[in-house]
Write a structure and sequence with these properties.
By secondary structure, the chain is mainly α. 63% of the residues lie in helices and 0% in strands. It has 9 helices and no strands. Helix 3 packs across helix 5, helix 4 packs antiparallel against helix 5 and helix 6 packs antiparallel against helix 8.
Length: 194
Amino acid sequence: MEAGMTREQAWTLLREYNQEPFHLQHALTVEAVMRWFANELGYGADADFWALCGLLHDVDFERYPDQHCTKAAEILPAAGASDALTHAVCCHGYGLCSNVEPEHEMEKVLFATDELTGLIGAAAKMRPSKSCTDMELSSLKKKFKDKKFAAGCSRDVIRQGAEMLGWELDTLLDKTLQAMRATEADVQAAMAAL
C-alpha cells in the first residue's frame, strides 16, 4: 500500500502539530506496534505503511482535540498523504469522532490497539520496573477489568476492536502486550533522542 510520504516527512508533519512528549511517545508506540502487527499477521511487505498509519493516527489530536479525525482529513492530503493513509487515520476514531469505518485488517488493528497501548503504558508506569517487558497477561487483564484504572482508556473500544478483528479479547491483549514488549526499548531510545 502506498503512503504518499516517507517516514521522515511523516515525522516532520507530526512534529508540526504535536509538541507534547506524551503525544509523541504515544505516536511512536503505536507506530512500533503497528509495524510489529504487520509482520506478525503476514503483511510484512506493507509494514512501513502500517507503521506510518500508527505514527500519524493522532496527527490532529493535540492541536484540534474537538475536531479529531476531521482535521486529519484536511492535514494529511495537503501534506501529500495517500487516500489509503488518510482513510486509515480517519477511521481509527470510528463511532467516537468519525463515521469512516475501518475496512482493511490494518485499520481494524489500529482501531483495536490505539486505546490498548495507552492502557498497557499506564499499567507499565505502575510497575516497579516502569516497563511492560516483565508484565504478564494476567496482570494486564486485572488492570483491564479495573474500570477506575486508566479510566480514559475505553474498554468498550478495545472490546469492539477485538470483535471487529474476529479475535478473542485475550488474543488482542496478549498480542498487543507482546508488541509493546518487543518495541519498548526502541520507543524509549527514540524519545531520548528528541
